[in-house]
């Protein structure tokens, strides 16, 4: 199931369906928090009660969650198992595929490049690219980084043999979720600050030939390591081999875990290639909710505000995760008492969801290792508990 199909299916009940823990063996870690109106002990008790049967009933072997309140990591917990065959439990170090939640991290890195003058948010990307991403359509010269990050390029989500890459509308005039847009922007970023390795190449959708790049090293150097995300990355490595969870199908059976290569990262890193832990992603989220002073790696307040500002309205058919607008890298739920930024992810054997309130400096990330993970992350009872962190 493609991510777009997954989102259409599951967003009908935003935080609404059913977290397996054949046993919830991994121990939770409450972390002292600043003064808050939320009773953390009560909230954690409810989550620990709800999540194991949700996982079991949904045939999802494992999950990991991290909760932030008042700019503090107040709780993190692994549930269930990394692999239904080995029964090894999920713990704080377990690495999941973030799927499309990866886009939020790449968007942050792009905005930092804009701050540094390496890239401009509103300059056509053809001004930077050495070759044309798509031949035969002059509208390519209109597409900017802002269009990519707000999904208004006009590209479809992904090309295929039956649906070659094309621009479906004038860039900037409509919303259409697009992984291809992120791939285009990633290729421009690589041209500006990275390197290619023509000796290593592979073919992907519709026969697209992709050359290996150093995007993993670039994003590690510019964001992951400075933010303390030491367990995260885009290429297979020894740490992943020790800590990564396996994907599982709808019946909870284990699937083969792909080992992402440099060509895989060159194609998918920005759109869905991030491997991370709930704790690592919470560190990234805290840089948005409670940012440290701007420096070589961190955005200034103006860029942060632009990142979460609604850029394009979504109509009823376009709504994803209950959002009615899209910002830069994030969808936005415009609620009565304040905005909520949100992004979900879904690819074979993995489902994920991140939500946060910048004003309340609170939010959460849930990562699961099963195709039925949507039944977990959108469960109504679970959502009712987690929504205490967010504006009503």
How is this structure best described in words?
The protein has 392 residues and is α+β, with helices and mostly antiparallel strands. It has a single domain, classed as 3-Layer(aba) Sandwich (Beta-lactamase). Helices cover 30% and strands 17% of the residues. The protein has twelve helices and twelve strands. It has helices at residues 3-10, 40-58, 102-115, 145-149, 179-193, 215-224, 238-243, 262-272, 278-289, 301-308, 374-377, 380-386, and strands at residues 62-69, 72-80, 96-97, 196-203, 209-213, 275-276, 312-313, 325-326, 331-335, 338-347, 350-357, 362-368. The chain has an eight-stranded antiparallel sheet, sandwiched between helices. A two-stranded antiparallel ribbon has the order 3-6. It has a two-stranded antiparallel sheet with strand order 4-5. β10 (338-347) and β11 form a beta hairpin. The longest helix has 19 residues, at 40-58. The model is unreliable at 1-34 (pLDDT under 50).
């Amino acid at each position: 199931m493609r991510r777009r199909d997954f989102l259409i299916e599951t967003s009908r009940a935003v935080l609404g369906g059913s977290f397996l823990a054949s046993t919830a063996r991994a121990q939770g870690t409450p972390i002292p928090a600043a003064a808050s109106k939320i009773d953390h002990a009560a909230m954690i008790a409810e989550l620990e009660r709800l999540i194991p049967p949700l996982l079991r009933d949904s045939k999802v072997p494992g999950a990991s969650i991290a909760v932030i309140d008042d700019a503090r990591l107040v709780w993190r917990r692994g549930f269930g198992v990394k692999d239904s065959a080995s029964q090894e439990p999920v713990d704080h170090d377990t690495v999941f595929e973030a799927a499309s939640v990866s886009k939020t991290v790449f968007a942050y890195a792009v905005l930092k490049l804009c701050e540094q003058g390496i890239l401009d948010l509103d300059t056509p990307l053809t001004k930077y690219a050495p070759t044309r991403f798509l031949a035969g359509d002059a509208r390519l010269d209109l597409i900017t980084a802002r269009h990519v990050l707000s999904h208004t390029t006009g590209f479809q989500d992904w090309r295929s043999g039956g649906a070659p890459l094309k621009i479906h509308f004038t860039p900037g005039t409509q919303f259409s979720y697009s992984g291809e847009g992120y791939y285009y922007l990633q290729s421009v970023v690589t041209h500006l600050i990275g390197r290619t390795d023509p000796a290593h190449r592979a073919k992907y959708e519709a026969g697209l030939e992709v050359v290996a790049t150093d995007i993993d090293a670039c994003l590690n150097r510019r964001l992951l390591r400075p933010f303390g995300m030491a367990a995260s990355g885009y290429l297979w490595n020894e740490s992943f081999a020790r800590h990564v969870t396996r994907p599982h199908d709808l019946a909870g059976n284990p699937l083969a875990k792909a080992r992402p290569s440099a060509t895989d990262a060159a194609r998918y890193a920005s759109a869905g290639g991030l491997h991370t832990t709930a704790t690592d992603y919470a560190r990234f989220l805290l840089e948005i909710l409670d940012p440290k002073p701007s420096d070589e790696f961190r955005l200034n307040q103006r860029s942060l505000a632009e990142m979460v500002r609604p850029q394009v309205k979504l109509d009823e058919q376009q709504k994803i995760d209950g959002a009615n607008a899209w910002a830069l890298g994030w969808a936005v739920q415009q609620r009565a008492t304040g905005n909520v930024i949100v992004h979900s992810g879904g690819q074979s054997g993995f489902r994920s969801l991140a939500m946060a309130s910048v004003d309340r400096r609170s939010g959460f990330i849930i990562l699961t290792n099963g195709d039925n993970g949507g039944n977990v992350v959108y469960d109504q009872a679970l959502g009712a508990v987690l929504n205490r962190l967010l504006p009503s």
